[in-house]
Write a structure and sequence with these properties.
510 residues, 22 helices
C-alpha cells in the first residue's frame, strides 16, 4: 500500500511538472475536438483493414481455383478442399489469442507480424511446386489473417470517438462483408486472363503499401501489460476450434459420400473423433477459464444474456452471409448453366453496394441507438432467402442477383452494428476479449455455413446422374430450395436473438 501511494505521488508530481513545462494554450484547447476523427486513425484503419481484406479475399478466391489446382498438382476433390479447410483452421486457432496479443504486444508490432506472415505466405504460394507447400503457405496466411482482423476492430474500439464508433465499425465491416462476397468474382476474372499465381503476385505489393501506411499511422494509446499465456489454455482452445471446424468439414464430406453411395468410413471416423475432441477441449477450456487468475479469454462476459445473444446472432447471420456466395455460384452454374465468371459476378452488385452502405448503418447507430438500425435492416434482409425459396424452381441469373442484392444490402447495413451493440455491454478493459469471442464466432460461422450448405446441395444431387444433365440441374434446384429454406430459418433465429437482447437491454436501462 505504501509503495502504491509513493508511485501515485510520483506520477502526480511528473504530471504537474509536465503541465508547468508545457502549459495548455486555451486557443489550441478550444480548437481541439475530442470527437473528431484524426487522420492517423483513418490511416491505421485503412492499413490494417487492407491487410485483413486481402487475407479474407484470398480465402474465398481459392474456391474458384480448385479445378486448376487439381490439374496442376494431380490431386482429387477431397484433397484440394484442404486448401480452404487448413486456412480456416489456422484462422480459427489464432482468433482467440488476439486478446492476449493485444494486451502483451504493441499494436505496430502485431501489425508488422501480420504483414510478414502475409508476404511470406504469398511468396510460397507463388513459387510452390508441391501441394504440401501450398498447405504450409495457407497456414502462414491464416495466422496472419487471424491477427489482422481482430487488430482492426481493437483499434476502432480503443481509439474512436464515442459519437463516431458506429460509423467506424461500419467501415470495418466493409472488410468482413465485401471480401468473402467478391472473392469468387475476383478469382474468376483474374484466372480467365492470367495464371492463378498472379493473384498472390498482385497481393504482395498491396500488402507492402499497407505496411508503409500502418507504420506511419498506427499509434499506441494504451500501454501493454505483462499478460501471461497459459500453454494448457492455448492448447485446449486451439484443439476445440480445430476439432469443431474439422468435424463440420469432414461430417459434410461423409454425409455427401454416404448419400452418393460412396465410402464414408474414413471421413465419418474423422468427423466423430474431431467432434469429441473439440467438445471435450472446449469444456476443459471453459473450466480452466473460470478458475484461472489470468484467463486467455474472459468467458465470464457471456454470463450477461444480452452479450450472449448478440454473440449467438453474430455466429448465425454470417453463417448465412458467407455460405450465400457458395450457394448462388453453384446453383447458377449447375442448375442454370451460367459460366463461372457470370456466376461469380451475380453476388457483386449486392456485395459492393452493401459494403458502401455499411458505414451508413454505423451512422444510424450513432444517431438513433441500436434497436432500429439493427432490427429493421436485418428484418428486411430475410426477404432475400425467402424470395429465393418462393421462386427456387424457376430462378434466372437476374433473379439470383436481384434477390441477393436485397439480402446483401440490408445485411451489411444491419450486421455492421451487431458487434458494436454487443460490445457496448462489455466493460472497456474486457473488450479485447469480447472482440476475440465475436471474431471467433464470425469465423466459425463462416466455416459452418459452407460445410452445411455444400452438404445440403450434395445430398440433393446424389443419384441424379452426371453433371450437365437435366436431372442433375433439377436436383441442384431442389437442393437450392432446401438451402434457401434453411437460410430463412437461421436468419429468423438470429433476428430473434437480437430482438430479445435489445429488449433485455431496454428493460435494464429502464
Amino acid at each position: 500500500m505504501e509503495r502504491e501511494t509513493m508511485h501515485q505521488q510520483t506520477e502526480t508530481d511528473e504530471s504537474v511538472a509536465q503541465l508547468s513545462a508545457n502549459p495548455v494554450n486555451p486557443a489550441n484547447a478550444a480548437n481541439t475536438d475530442p470527437e473528431q476523427i484524426s487522420g492517423k486513425l483513418i490511416g491505421a484503419i485503412v492499413a490494417v483493414g487492407s491487410l485483413a481484406f486481402i487475407g479474407i479475399l484470398t480465402e474465398t478466391v481459392m474456391t474458384v481455383l480448385f479445378p486448376a489446382l487439381m490439374r496442376e498438382f494431380h490431386v482429387d476433390t477431397a484433397t484440394v478442399q484442404w486448401i480452404t479447410t487448413i486456412y480456416l483452421l489456422s484462422v480459427a486457432a489464432t482468433m482467440p489469442v488476439s486478446s492476449f496479443l493485444k494486451r502483451r504486444f504493441r499494436l505496430k508490432a502485431l501489425f508488422l507480424a501480420a504483414v510478414a506472415l502475409a508476404v511470406i505466405g504469398s511468396l510460397i504460394m507463388i513459387v510452390a511446386q508441391a501441394f504440401p507447400l501450398l498447405l504450409v503457405a495457407r497456414v502462414i496466411q491464416g495466422v496472419g489473417s487471424g491477427i489482422a482482423t481482430p487488430l482492426m476492430i481493437n483499434i476502432i474500439l480503443e481509439q474512436s470517438p464515442r459519437t463516431k464508433i458506429g460509423r467506424l465499425m461500419g467501415v470495418g465491416s466493409l472488410v468482413i462483408t465485401v471480401a468473402p462476397a467478391i472473392g469468387p468474382t475476383v478469382g474468376g476474372a483474374v484466372t480467365s486472363i492470367l495464371p492463378w499465381r498472379a493473384i498472390f503476385v498482385i497481393a504482395v505489393p498491396l500488402v507492402l503499401i499497407a505496411a508503409v501506411i500502418g507504420c506511419r499511422c498506427i499509434e499506441q494509446k494504451v500501454p501493454t501489460q505483462p499478460a501471461y499465456l497459459s500453454p494448457l489454455q492455448l492448447t485446449s482452445i486451439v484443439a476445440a476450434l480445430v476439432g469443431l471446424v474439422l468435424a463440420l468439414n469432414q461430417g459434410g464430406v461423409a454425409i455427401s459420400a454416404l448419400v452418393a453411395g460412396g465410402n464414408a468410413t474414413q471421413s465419418g471416423i474423422i468427423a466423430i473423433a474431431s467432434l469429441v475432441i473439440g467438445l471435450g477441449a472446449l469444456a476443459l477450456f471453459a473450466l480452466m477459464s473460470r478458475r484461472a487468475f489470468s484467463p486467455l479469454l474472459r468467458l465470464g462476459i457471456l454470463k450477461d444474456p444480452a452479450v450472449l445473444l448478440h454473440a449467438l446472432a453474430y455466429l448465425l447471420l454470417p453463417l448465412v452471409a458467407i455460405g450465400y456466395g457458395y450457394v448462388i455460384t453453384n446453383v447458377a452454374q449447375l442448375s442454370l448453366g451460367a459460366s463461372a465468371f457470370v456466376a461469380g459476378a451475380l453476388v457483386l452488385p449486392g456485395a459492393l453496394v452493401g459494403a458502401v452502405c455499411a458505414p451508413f448503418g454505423g451512422w444510424c447507430y450513432d444517431k438513433f441507438g441500436a434497436r432500429k438500425p439493427i432490427l429493421i435492416p436485418l428484418g428486411i434482409c430475410i426477404l432475400g432467402p425467402v424470395l429465393m425459396l418462393v421462386f427456387s424452381m424457376r430462378l434466372t441469373p437476374a433473379m439470383l442477383a436481384g434477390f441477393y442484392f436485397i439480402f446483401g444490402l440490408f445485411y451489411a447495413i444491419g450486421n455492421a452494428n451487431v458487434m458494436t451493440s454487443g460490445l457496448s455491454e462489455v466493460p472497456g478493459e474486457f473488450r479485447p476479449d469480447g472482440n476475440a469471442i465475436f471474431n471467433t464466432c464470425l469465423q466459425f460461422g463462416g466455416a459452418a455455413g459452407t460445410a452445411l450448405f455444400s452438404t445440403i446441395l450434395a445430398v440433393a444431387q446424389a443419384g441424379s446422374g452426371a453433371e450437365g444433365t437435366p436431372a442433375f440441374a433439377h436436383a441442384t434446384a431442389v437442393g437450392g430450395a432446401w438451402t434457401f429454406a434453411t437460410m430463412t430459418v437461421i436468419c429468423l433465429i438470429g433476428w430473434s436473438c437480437l430482438a430479445l437482447a435489445l429488449r433485455i437491454r431496454a428493460k435494464r436501462n429502464a
